[in-house]
Design goal:
Length: 505
């Protein structure tokens, strides 16, 4: 459709996961009501809507994996599980009236900055939208990563990724191959092992696994949290403080090696077979890759119907072949291979005023952003959970809340000052990223001796925040001096009917 009939809003939010919901709530709290949230799915929740595999849950305690402004006193367990977490985000969105701001079933196919009109032109499955500010919150755990295994297209059985779990496929009595042993696999492998005839787990690299101190929260305790909210806030603060203390170890490898002893003892206690234990022992420092927590994963691998293999090398019509050449005959393949993190899909469909995608901007080096949120060359664009914004020791919801406030504060400042656009200053962008990469150097993320999704192909860390959560919260405050503003009225976009480039997203 042409520009004059485009839907025009001040702020357009892409995605109704935890980030999109938090942004809508923050905008409303700031008195900004002219915004729309576009969601390709049929409900809020993002990764918690999409990931429904058996055993799916969170490895951050429930009291901390919730919005600070919307605590839930009735978590049933210390660590929440997917159905309950999804219900929480639905209830939070409902309490704050966010459902009224969302258009479901709308897929964004492209977004381009129109410099003369000082707005974003966004093409979608629902036609064109124009927006003065674009907040991209599609989520990093969004696009499943699938390995390019030779022969995969010849497999005659059933194959699916854990994020697209085939609940119609009964695993009872099946011979199942699990390819990948990341956070999802460590949760679903124990859940399915008792139902299948054979379970073949293909492991590229073992991960350190810590005990999961999980337990049901008694109803009297839940009612106490409800009656005296300060008690739940105290628990939340205690969890935060404990994780901040662990965060110090991420920045000092010698300390982390002491914590690593707990993971080694956990492995020794649960796996008596020395050969299997050796195959499950990582050769890198704890924290270099994502730390896993489970009480059931190791015991499952010792079961009589479970077989651990080295990485998958190829697939035939009825088998998966490991790098050792051994073939496991199976009728089902489940990929637990995670998501596209180092190459976020959003970079493919967001274009600057010259028609260059964000992916092209990043092609000459590693993905970078200022505070993981704004990017030089892309005015009025805010990305959620962008490069180097994730502390490895913390709840991501704290980051999301801070980013949502940042967007609301920026939009409010623009309206008050009469600015049509803001763009982060290149010197601020450069200085921040240089400082960040220097700080990452001695952390276990970089120096722990592993290859992880934290690092791109050149060994450049694109994921982690190297400092404390407290410093993240302090830094993620909008400061107008960090930006180059352009004065002018916010445009309706009617005078510039050009469409953004169409791309698949």
């Amino acid at each position: 459709m042409a520009g004059p009939t485009s839907r025009q809003v001040r702020v357009l939010v892409i995605g109704a996961g935890p980030s999109g919901v938090a942004t809508a709530i923050a905008l409303r709290a700031a008195g900004i009501t002219d915004f729309t949230v576009l969601e390709r799915g049929d409900d809020v929740g993002g990764t918690w809507r999409e990931n429904t595999y058996p055993g799916c849950g969170c490895d951050v305690p429930s009291a901390w994996y919730s919005y600070s402004f919307d605590p839930n006193p009735f978590w049933s367990r210390f660590y929440g599980r997917q159905p309950e977490i999804q219900r929480y985000f639905r209830a939070s969105a409902r309490r704050h009236g966010v459902y009224d701001d969302i258009r479901f079933g709308v897929r964004v196919t492209g977004a381009r900055w129109d410099a003369p009109a000082q707005l974003w032109r966004v093409s979608t499955s629902d036609g064109e939208y124009t927006a003065n500010v674009l907040a991209a919150a599609p989520g990093p755990l969004h696009q499943p990563a699938l390995p390019a295994l030779p022969g995969l297209d010849t497999f005659t059985g059933t194959a699916f990724h854990s994020a697209r779990w085939d609940h119609g496929h009964d695993l009872t009595g099946r011979r199942v191959a699990v390819i990948g042993t990341g956070a999802s696999a460590i949760q679903f492998v124990p859940e399915i092992a008792g139902r299948v005839a054979e379970l073949h787990v293909f492991q590229r690299t073992p991960s350190w696994v810590l005990p999961k101190v999980d337990f049901p929260i008694p109803r009297p305790v839940q009612f106490a949290f409800r009656a005296a909210p300060i008690t739940e806030r105290a628990v939340r603060f205690g969890i935060y403080a404990a994780h901040e203390a662990i965060g110090v170890a991420f920045r000092h490898e010698a300390l982390m090696r002491r914590v690593q002893k707990a993971a080694r003892l956990h492995l020794i206690a649960q796996v008596r077979d020395t050969e299997l234990r050796a195959a499950l022992t990582p050769n890198f420092t704890l924290g270099c890759k994502r730390i896993m927590v489970s009480n059931t994963y190791y015991p499952t691998l010792t079961g009589p119907n479970v077989h651990l293999h080295p990485a998958a090398a190829a697939v035939t019509s009825g088998a998966v072949i490991g790098t050792d050449g051994a073939a496991a005959e199976v009728d089902t393949v489940i990929f637990g291979t995670g998501f596209e993190i180092t190459h976020p899909p959003v970079a493919q469909y967001v274009f600057d005023g010259d028609g260059r995608s964000l992916a092209e901007h990043w092609a000459g080096g590693a993905p970078e952003a200022y505070l993981g949120t704004t990017i030089a060359g892309f005015p009025n664009l805010f990305v959620f959970l962008g490069p180097n914004i994730a502390p490895g020791h913390a709840s991501v919801l704290g980051t999301i809340e801070a980013q949502a406030r940042y967007v609301a504060d920026a939009v409010g400042a623009m309206a008050r000052a009469g600015w049509s656009s803001l763009q982060v200053r290149p010197d601020v962008h450069r200085r921040f990223n240089d400082s960040l990469q220097r700080a990452l150097g001695p952390t276990v993320y970089n120096s722990g001796g592993c290859a992880s999704y934290y690092l791109d192909g050149a060994g450049h860390n694109v994921a982690n925040w190297p400092w404390s959560v407290a410093r993240l919260a302090a830094n993620l405050r909008f400061r107008a001096d960090d930006y180059v503003p352009v004065s002018g009225e916010w445009s309706s976009g009617a005078a510039h009917p050009s469409r953004p480039e169409e791309v698949n997203a």
